[in-house]
Amino acid sequence: MCGIAGIVANFEVSGSLYWALYALQHRGQESGGISTYDNGTVHKYKGYGLVSEVFTSDILQSLSGKTGLGHVRYPTTGGSKPENIQPFNFLFRGHSLSIVHNGNLVNTNDLRYEYEGRGHIFSTTSDTEVIAAILANELIHGHTVGEAISFCMRSIRGSYAVIFMLDGVLYAFRDPLGIKPLCLGEFEDGGHIVASESVALDAVGAKLLRDVAPGESIRLKADKVYPRQIMTAKSPAHCVFEYIYFARADSVIDGISVYDVRQKTGFLLAKEAPAGADIVSPVPDSGTAAATGYAAASGIPFREALIKNRYTGRTFIMPTQAKREMAVRMKLNPVRGHITGKSVVLVDDSIVRGTTSRRIIALVREFGAKEVHLRVASPPIIAPCYLGTDFPTREELISNHKSVAEVREAIEATSLAHISLEGLVEAIGVPCSHLCTGCLTGKYPLAIDGEEEESHGIEMIDPYKNPEL
Amino acid sequence: MCGIAGIVANFEVSGSLYWALYALQHRGQESGGISTYDNGTVHKYKGYGLVSEVFTSDILQSLSGKTGLGHVRYPTTGGSKPENIQPFNFLFRGHSLSIVHNGNLVNTNDLRYEYEGRGHIFSTTSDTEVIAAILANELIHGHTVGEAISFCMRSIRGSYAVIFMLDGVLYAFRDPLGIKPLCLGEFEDGGHIVASESVALDAVGAKLLRDVAPGESIRLKADKVYPRQIMTAKSPAHCVFEYIYFARADSVIDGISVYDVRQKTGFLLAKEAPAGADIVSPVPDSGTAAATGYAAASGIPFREALIKNRYTGRTFIMPTQAKREMAVRMKLNPVRGHITGKSVVLVDDSIVRGTTSRRIIALVREFGAKEVHLRVASPPIIAPCYLGTDFPTREELISNHKSVAEVREAIEATSLAHISLEGLVEAIGVPCSHLCTGCLTGKYPLAIDGEEEESHGIEMIDPYKNPEL
Amino acid sequence: MCGIAGIVANFEVSGSLYWALYALQHRGQESGGISTYDNGTVHKYKGYGLVSEVFTSDILQSLSGKTGLGHVRYPTTGGSKPENIQPFNFLFRGHSLSIVHNGNLVNTNDLRYEYEGRGHIFSTTSDTEVIAAILANELIHGHTVGEAISFCMRSIRGSYAVIFMLDGVLYAFRDPLGIKPLCLGEFEDGGHIVASESVALDAVGAKLLRDVAPGESIRLKADKVYPRQIMTAKSPAHCVFEYIYFARADSVIDGISVYDVRQKTGFLLAKEAPAGADIVSPVPDSGTAAATGYAAASGIPFREALIKNRYTGRTFIMPTQAKREMAVRMKLNPVRGHITGKSVVLVDDSIVRGTTSRRIIALVREFGAKEVHLRVASPPIIAPCYLGTDFPTREELISNHKSVAEVREAIEATSLAHISLEGLVEAIGVPCSHLCTGCLTGKYPLAIDGEEEESHGIEMIDPYKNPEL
Amino acid sequence: MCGIAGIVANFEVSGSLYWALYALQHRGQESGGISTYDNGTVHKYKGYGLVSEVFTSDILQSLSGKTGLGHVRYPTTGGSKPENIQPFNFLFRGHSLSIVHNGNLVNTNDLRYEYEGRGHIFSTTSDTEVIAAILANELIHGHTVGEAISFCMRSIRGSYAVIFMLDGVLYAFRDPLGIKPLCLGEFEDGGHIVASESVALDAVGAKLLRDVAPGESIRLKADKVYPRQIMTAKSPAHCVFEYIYFARADSVIDGISVYDVRQKTGFLLAKEAPAGADIVSPVPDSGTAAATGYAAASGIPFREALIKNRYTGRTFIMPTQAKREMAVRMKLNPVRGHITGKSVVLVDDSIVRGTTSRRIIALVREFGAKEVHLRVASPPIIAPCYLGTDFPTREELISNHKSVAEVREAIEATSLAHISLEGLVEAIGVPCSHLCTGCLTGKYPLAIDGEEEESHGIEMIDPYKNPEL
Asked: Which residues are responsible for catalysis (chains A, B, C, D) (predicted)?
């Protein structure tokens, strides 16, 4: 999971890129970077930390230019190494290429092997460098940018939302299933922005035009956008976890409000799995929308049993004497008066390993709860994700090898219920076949070694019928 | 507003002091410090920043000892200077004195003048150094600790919750009106803690025994607490703003749950000032409890129109090109789908200058709200605070010189209503005479130069009838 | 050992104070601080590290004002604690007092006890706070500044060069024996400076007027200096170690060039203790001047056998595997070609514990020296210093309990010789009775508990005959 | 100019690499890095700053392995960008390649163009990446390491001392003219080291075996070194500036003591260009050895007129009021007593732009020198360097377009003289044809676009007669 943004405009873009990345910070807190293009020169800066820590006013001013792109990173493939911080910047035959990528390829190793044979040696372990190598290789051999993108999309398999800047011209493309989100916006005073989520557009005062279509490639100018459909599929496969957890609640992804999906999930969950209780409380922050839905549908009062600590700072320290000072207490503050002697419904977004759920339930019980009913706004996660989510292995996923009853026992909840897959799909409001539910069903929308595929019929569009962008 | 804590126990206390201060972080983010006493030596460390930034595991280990105290600071009297970071540590005649203080004295200048005449020269502008000078002066002249505390409490006027450590023995005392909170807890495995709020006790697994009584002084040992009532008053004057805003929602202060006061305020506010609207939304974070109360009482659905940004980092930077990137957007993310075309009730805790309210309402309107009704969970603030709250001058307090109608116009709300003072008092659940409502009424519970006093009848207890603690 | 400076001028002084302290950096690298006075306000800043690390351009600009003083600190009495960083700043009865001090008092404890009885409680363990307490106490009781200085100088015993700023007026005074240096300079464009060494005057383009006389007190204005002799002595007792080691070689102290003293010492040492050798090499940096003298007098070629590492950085780290990577090699690089098979005279300034000498000789031997003759430009150090030098205890001073022959054996030198006391005195060029040679003779120029005094006949001047400055 | 080192041993090498780089710090202070190889994994760390700032004890421990290499960087080709910090680390076909390089190629652009055509896209602007691309390309196409090195050396033109580590095996090679230094050492307890200068060997207790021969390639094992001569030349072309300025004085380069060259240069300079003066003083630090030679030969006493400031810290700040506080004073402290009224010979290593010389002479005059005779231990620099020295353009080189008399006038010296080329060559002690004197003569030892070549007859050795190392 990462966040990306690119802007071309009639004004200097580094400030707006900053705010766009700032708004996408929830997609990655490890590192951030921006590259801009000004009159033949690529200006670039990147570092570890939050966007507000990496960049200063002086740095932003040094990033001059009316075209640029940026990235916030949450590490998936590749580990935490300085050379993996994006954007990546390359030089070849006098051309400059800067590139950012959100998603995960499943055929990286094959492509690395092939391009090493063609003469490229890799500085990083990132699949983004593979995408860059393919694009550069095509361009060096005299192909057009459009041909290079087509060839690249044909070669790579997986989830990808890519923005790149070639000699100061901005391009973007999205995988044929639209697994990872990418949307397009317009500045009133001249300019376009492409970013992972609509909140980045809100943050800079840009108007949401539409999502970049699955399989689409676009070239962005300040005054116009040149689209070209490169690939098609029978149906998209939008990542369900964007709606469940990743995206910011105030985003609109592929036309659907994330907050409303979450609230409706809570509503349906209350119907599917009612609980006789005194209060409904979210596990903050991600369970809040679902909890309000659950409360509204059940009529049980909404009351926060747990309040998130506003001042956790950066450094996580843990003195040795700490039996009585448990880690979860650092982040969550129980409201004793809402808990003691009460029966509590806790609404959380998901269960991964079960460890956190167990600790939270223990904490609520320690503060005197009579009963703790856990309601989960996603179906059980039974399989790993190969397409951009950093889930652990099958062995570590508690729901992979335990029934709901067994999980309930393990986390010591009074009762436990998940929303059904049907309920979740209803809340999202598109057919199930339009979603990637690999982690919930074990069936993936494209070929992955050793896993079951439910083909979405991806095809290239005949290039002769599809003139260059 | 500051947060203080002191612990004496059968175990090393620096780790628990760390977590106690961590839990009190909302009371002051400017700086933090801890002093401990181990076998004749005072170990001490303090610095600027959040508790989690000031202290490291190594530093905590170097703060050895089974007695100690700490402080988090929000600057009131004295300005932001390194020498003002507490605890203050003094040496005299081979004795060591460490001291922390929450509150504000109103006769500091008189006392400084007097003690300068007696030979003390001051290194800081803090009223805490005045308290220390008085205590030390009495002790040097051969008085007992109990006499020194009595004399000190007789001399100083204002709000104060004080913890001090004299040669490794821990003491605490609270002003006769109990303006600032201070509570007492017990560790299961031997030890006592005194702290500003009960959440600090929760954070270290200590049990809340009771509040330190107004006018009471206590000596703490690991196995026993020695109380002594020094002063009395006809009634206490607990600060209403602790309930409205300062205290953490999950605290219990002077026997009353802060969250419940806030939620009940929202409930009563819905009765007093209904609004025909599509959704009720808090201004996060402090309006959340009141907003749930308002929603429940009004039947209007609770939906977050604004979501607080989780990743704001430390550095506040503002590139010059920023017309379109307003500051308030950094902290609050509007949920477009809940706002566009809707009539919104926003619930906030208070209005001080009016600037923030105006910006938030403009932001919500910009995202398409049809109507924005602001409901405020406190009466208008019309007068300054001399007793520990960092309110601006009368001139800057918008409600001091504007009627509610005029404020509504200034902040461009569709409608505006405050809870009545009666409503607030009902929500707190004690007689109005037990509260300090100076900022809401202009009448203060003790003598302040140029202000109206509503005397609470403070008296010293006859020391002959009140044996030493 | 510390460095101090004060300036009053027709221009903003913080920049010049910065460069003055920068030039005095060799006197203390632990911490630095500056206070200035501008229109009723004292501006101040201090911190750990080198002057160039503590201050930034922004900080210097914030230190506005045409009067100010500063300090660089090397810890002697008081330990390394933030509150001990000077200048100290005090407030009393509306007056502001900032003070810096170089030297060491020998009756600190008596004075602390007395002033605690008078009502002062101490925040630090520094003897500078004692000096401030005495001055403030006198001023509060209605005495004039001149009376306060007189009384203070009568009360304190030890070495002291003090600069203080009272409500923006700059004063300085020096102990009656002139143990620690203090000199006075003038700016061409209006202003005066007082500082520990003349190099500080060179650094800011000021002209050296004269040294502050032993027992003298001065008030400085931009256009004039008001002197007043407070105390007299039969003869001064200038610290010999300033000439041997402390002062920067390019300083002129009490009228004598430090470099010339050092070079002449080397010259005389060659006469007193010749050595048949191939080269003469300094132990850098402090032995360089003496080594050039030794080479010139002996006719043996001057060649550097050891070169100082220019890039040692701040962090001293020492991996565990380090048998082969000895600490001394980090700082000194042997020139193999000058050493292998050669007989080498090494000239060093002094021997304290003997450890460093032993390591250096071993290093030179390891690089193949046939013989290593150590020549020391000071007599053996046999007694501790109570007056400002951080020598270790008698037990740790190798020359206290070992003869020169035994020391030679311990440090494994081929031969070892010190300059005689007579030689050193001849090099300095003043009578021996004008110097403090406590560490070399065990006889001190003032009364120190348990040590032998060689009285210098200190007396107060009749104040009736000595009108106020 | 950079410094490089590689070690393979029977022990963990990161500590020794640290000290080796520490000893090479004078060759580059911008950044440093180390890569080690342990059981299939490459551990790596690099950063900006001095070696002692980049690495901590923890970091060194994490760099496990018995083989490794490191680099300190002074920026030449490529600018100051994080991605240019060496070692570079690459991955291809499961192999790992780490590489460091000191020197400068003159056909980088041609090679970049060619390898971009073969499929490599470059992440950096460094010529080291070109060397890596060539090596990797050969290896991927099935050639042996020996063939890859041969092919690489045939392809690249310029100065280069390269160390690389391929899957944990350490190799080094040096350009056929031996322009940049590289020497080989042995650890007593098993292991070999290859490094830019012999001081790195001294620093880790290794014995200097020999220099790596010009045109030689070696493979290093802990117990043995496998040499192979790849190229030959009629004569080497060792860089004269290593002897004049770059190398540390205590190094031995290509069999010659750097200190002795410098001292002898001073000696010959005194014969060539005598000056009637009172003292001879170096411009510290680099003029010291030559000044002692000049003093010895002339009989004029050696006395330091300028002393280098030991405590300059890192931050260079310059308040605006600074007319009287000139930058050069920050670094050099004039000894007034040696200057006032005296005639001074200043000995410096070289004149580049003339600016520094002018400032120093002005400073010495300001302190009262009667005459200032500048003697320069190198001939005039009249042409740029393409082979690793960061000289400015011809226009900025003052001696390129001004006669010695004109330069004297420009820098306001009383007299000015340079050592003759013949004198310098005599001091070094090898035939002039064995040196690269491009910057002094404008004639370069290899073909450089637009410059005059004096061919050294470089040839490849017949590979059939030269079995693989």
From this structure: 2
Using a CB-CB distance cutoff of 8 angstroms, which residues of chain D are in contact with residue A118?
118-119
For residues B298 and B321, the answer to whether their CB atoms sit within 8 Å is: no
DSSP for C89-104 reads EEEETTEEEEEEEEEE
Q: Are B137 and B165 in contact (CB under 8 A)?
A: no
Contact across the interface for B121 and C133, Cβ inside 8 Å: yes
How close does chain A come to D118, measured CA to CA in Å? 6
Cα–Cα distance, A245 to A392 (Å, whole number): 16
CA distance A45 to chain D (A): 9
Q: How high is the pLDDT of residue D316?
A: 39
**3-class secondary structure, B323:** helix
Strand-pair category, A252-253 with A256-257: antiparallel
Q: Which positions ≥6 away from A61 have C-beta within 8 Å?
A: A14, B319
Q: Is the pTM of this model over 0.95?
A: no
CB contact under 8 A, C122 and B83: no
pLDDT at site D322: 44
B chain contacts of residue A330, beta-carbon cutoff 8 Å: 19, 22
Q: Chain B interface residues facing chain C, Cβ-Cβ under 8 Å? A: 82-83, 88-93, 97, 113, 115-123, 125, 132-133, 136-137, 140
Q: How many helices (H) and strands (E) does chain C have?
A: 17, 27
**List of chain A residues whose C-beta atoms are within 8 Å of the C-beta of residue D82:** 82
ipTM of this predicted structure? 0.79
Mutual angle of helices C421-428 and C258-272, in 10-degree steps: 140
Q: Which one-letter DSSP state was computed for residue A119?
A: T
Would strands B88-92 and A343-348 be described as parallel, antiparallel, or unpaired? unpaired
Round to the nearest angstrom and report the end-to-end CA distance of chain B. 29
State pLDDT tens for residues A157-176: 999 999 999 999 999 999 99
Nearest 5 degrees, angle CA D302-CA D308-CA D310? 135
What's the distance, CA D181 to chain centroid?
8
**In angstroms, how far is the first alpha carbon of chain D from the final one?**
29
Q: Report yes or no on chains C and B touching (3+ CB pairs under 8 A).
A: yes
| Catalytic residue chosen out of the listed positions D2, D152, D183, D432 | D2
Known catalytic membership, residue D183: no
Say if residue B280's pLDDT is above 80: yes
Contact A334, B250 (CB under 8 A): yes
The secondary structure element, H or E, covering residue D163 is: strand D158-166
Give the containing element (helix H, strand E) for D72.
Answer: strand D67-73
Cβ contacts of D409 within 8 Å, gap of 6 or more: none
Q: What is the mean pLDDT of residues C157-184?
A: 97
**D312 Cβ neighbours under 8 A, 6+ residues apart:** C52, D330, D331
CA-wise closest residue to C337 among D250, B250, B168, A394? D250
C102-152: pLDDT as tens digits: 999 999 999 998 888 888 888 888 899 999 999 999 998 888 999 999 999
Inter-chain CB proximity D60 and C325 less than 8 Å: no
State the best of C121, C137, C139, C167 to mutate against chain B, taking most chain B CBs within 10 Å. Answer: C121
Query: Which residue among B250, B263, B325 places its CB closest to the CB of A333?
Result: B250
CA distance B197 to chain C (A): 29
Minimal Cβ distance to D120: which of A82, A97, A121: A121
End-to-end CA distance of chain C: 28
Instruction: Give yes or no for a contact between C129 and C123, defined as CB atoms under 8 angstroms apart.
Output: yes
SS3 C457: coil
- Per-residue tokens: C156: 């304190």
Enumerate residues 6+ apart whose C-beta is below 8 A from B224.
Answer: none
Q: How far is A453 from chain D (nearest CA, A)?
A: 29
Find the residue in A nearest to B311 (Cα): A25
